[in-house]
Each structure stands twice: as C-alpha cells, then as structure tokens.
Amino acid sequence: MTTLLETSSGAGFAEPAPSPLLLLGQGRDLASERGVECAGALPAASDPDLVERAVAARAALGDRAFVLGHHYQRDEVIRFADVTGDSFKLAREAAARPEAEFVLFCGVHFMAESADILTSDAAQQVVLPDLAAGCSMADMAAIDQVDEAWDVLDDLGLAGRTVPVTYMNSSAAIKAFTGRHGGTVCTSSNAEVALRWAFERADAAGAAEGAGDGAGKILFLPDQHLGRNTAVLQLGIPLDACVVYDPRKPDGGLTEAELAAARVILWRGHCSVHGRFSARNVEAVRAAVPDVTVMVHPECKHEVVTAADQVGSTEFIIRALDAAEPGSSWAIGTELNLVRRLAAQHPELQVHYLDSTVCFCSTMNRIDLPHLVWAMEELVEGRTVNRIVVDADDAHWARVALDQMLALPGL
Ligand code: SF4
C-alpha cells in the first residue's frame, strides 16, 4: 500500500496510509461496531454465501423493492444499488418510483427521512438497513437547541428579519423548523441560489420592520463550513459578518451586538469527514505532485476551500473527473469510498486522496452487506425491519421547506 504522496507505478490511485485507530465498518471489532440490535439473524460478515444470499433476496423482491446507494457507500453495497447519487438525487429517485413498495436506503438516517417525506405515505415503506447509520453533522443540530436559538433571536427582536436555511444534511425536525419559519432547504449544489433567495426575503423583512440598515439575516444550519464558504466566496459577504452560534453556550456564545451586526449566523456544526482536511494537506500535495489540481467539497474548512483550485459537490467532482484530460493529476478532498471508485473508473488519471490518513464516513459505512442481506431477507419473509417514518406534522413542514427548494431557480 502506498502513502498519500507516493503514486503507484504509472497512473493510478494513491492510497492513504492506514489509520492506527479503529475503523468502523471494517469488521475489526464487531462488538463495538454493532450499535443497534437487529431482530432475527444478522449474517456474519465472514459468511461465504453472503453475496449469493444478497443476489437471491434482491431477485425475490424484484420490482417491489428499489435500492438506493449513496456515493459514499461501500463497494459491496453499491453493487446492489439500482441507482447511486447524493442525498437529494436519491430522495427524488425514490419519489419517482411510486410502484416500489420498499425503498431500501443505503445511506444515513436523514437521507432515509427525506425519502420518507418525498415518497407516498401509505404505499411505500422506507428501510434503513442499520439504524446506527446516522450523520454526525445532522446530529449536531437538535431541534430543542434550534428552537432555543430562535427564542434568543426573537427576544432580541431579530427573528422577524432572519430566514433559516438548512442544508439537506439535517434531521426532518430541523427541515420542518425551517419550513415553519419561512425558510428553505439547500444542497451543496444550490446553496448560493438558496442564500440569495433567503437574503432577498430577510432584507425585505428588515426594511419593512424599519431596521436601521434594513439588513436581514440568515440562520444557516447545521454546517458552518458550507454556510461560510457560500456566503463569503459566492455572495461576497465579509468574513466578519458571519458569526458562529454555539448551542452549548448561553446565547450561542455571542453578544447582543454581535448577533445584531451579523449577516449570517452559522450553526456550530461540521462534517467529521470533510472537516479533517487541512490547508497543510493542500500544501503537501502541491509540493509532491507537479501540476496537481486540488478539488474539494464545500463542507471543508474555509482555509481548505480557499487553498484548493476547485470546489464543488460530489456530483460536481464526479463530472470534473469524467471530463478531465488523460494523464492529468488530481487531489480530491471528499469521502474515501467515492474517491477510490473514481480512481478505479479513471485509470487514465492520477488520482490522489487529499488526506494523509484513511477518511471514511464511519456512520455511512455501518450499512454493510450483512445488514443489507438481513433487511432484504426479512422483507422477502414479509417482515419490514428498520422502517423510517417521519411524524406527520414534521413531514408536512419539512415538505414545505423542500418544495421551497424545488421552486428555487436552477433546480
Ligand atoms: S460524510 Fe459527513 S455529512 Fe455526509 S453523512 Fe458522513 S458525517 Fe454526515
């Protein structure tokens, strides 16, 4: 195995060094990896018939099931996906298959919730093969914390000119909060359009309220990095007009003057995968690989995004490599399963991983082949396991926020 900056002979993927830490989902410590009990028999990862069982269960379900695979998912699972994509594309794909009785979502919890919101209530059941597949970023914004933050803004007379915008990577309850307060959902592809829309509304509300500067505000949830990168780099908002609201501190750790002066109030959340990349990683790869193009996801820190050559969503990264000049060198800052697959699909390119250590989405990796086989075999037997159902009121308001996103130009 080569390290990050040593390319293997000729064109090929430069694999990061293995981490000495526990790798979740790698079968090294099954006791610690099994966070959630599975009713019935979860096949052993070592079962030699696992692939055969998956093929048989998938065939038995036929058109009754539709299997979605997120880009960051393991290869062993992706091979059974009927469609692959980012969270929003997958939710829309699920909604476009009303004939499928079961939607098996090989992703994380908030994605399955979005699929449940967008699919038909009674006729379709959304299944998450392992309920422990959460998202650390989504978990950083709990609804009671967000309600409390809104109360803080309300007490200061700022809520009326604040429009909430939540990233797709948030719980259904947070999407519903956004819908209830006249905001929208955004993805990493349309965050700029969403923020421009939200500022128009917030500024109009500010002017109507007779606020001194008439300036409205955005409360951006839950990823501070996507919010900051979009506001500063795409909308030209000054960096010091973005403040970070820490839900663990009274009033978010901000003074009344700071909140009043802010244009963007960023929730203190981040992605544990993309947050690992550093500006030093960018420097190191530039020093080691001549003419390398560094491309990162906008969930990366601001200093990483500004040091990179290109920034974009997973779909953007996939398209960029599809269109790349043969022989060109790339260093990619996003989840490792995706980068590995892209490297394998593009042997004509030099594809490097930006981090010096292994960087999987450990929660996404909880969906492994044993869990997929278990969920499918249970469905074949007539038992629905791990069904994801969003409360009807939250589903309604989350749908309002999602529909607002769909009405934004360019989607
Ligand atoms: S990669 Fe980050 S944002 Fe995406 S599911 Fe994993 S923890 Fe959440």
Bound small molecules, by name, code or SMILES, are:
iron/sulfur cluster
Q: How many β-strands, per DSSP?
A: 14
List the total number of helices: 17
Q: How many domains in all?
A: 3
The rough form would be described as: globular
| Secondary-structure content class | alpha/beta
Mean pLDDT: 89
Gyration radius (Cα, Å) is 22 Å
Helix content: 25-40%
Q: What is the gist of this entry?
A:
The protein has 411 residues and is of the alpha/beta class.
Task: Give the topology, please.
Blueprint: E1 13-14, H1 30-33, H2 50-61, E2 65-70, H3 75-78, E3 83-85, H4 87-95, E4 102-106, H5 109-118, E5 125-127, H6 136-139, H7 143-155, E6 162-167, H8 172-180, E7 184-186, H9 191-209, E8 217-221, H10 224-234, E9 242-245, H11 256-261, E10 264-267, H12 279-288, E11 292-296, H13 302-307, E12 310-311, H14 314-322, E13 329-333, H15 336-345, E14 350-353, H16 369-380, H17 392-406
Parallel strand pairs: 1-14, 2-3, 2-4, 4-5, 6-7, 6-8, 8-10, 9-10, 11-12, 11-13, 13-14
Helix pairs in contact: 2-16, 4-5, 8-17
The structure holds iron/sulfur cluster.
Keywords: 4Fe-4S, Cytoplasm, Iron, Iron-sulfur, Metal-binding, Pyridine nucleotide biosynthesis, Transferase
Family: Belongs to the quinolinate synthase family. Type 3 subfamily.
Binding site for [4Fe-4S] cluster: 135, 271, 361
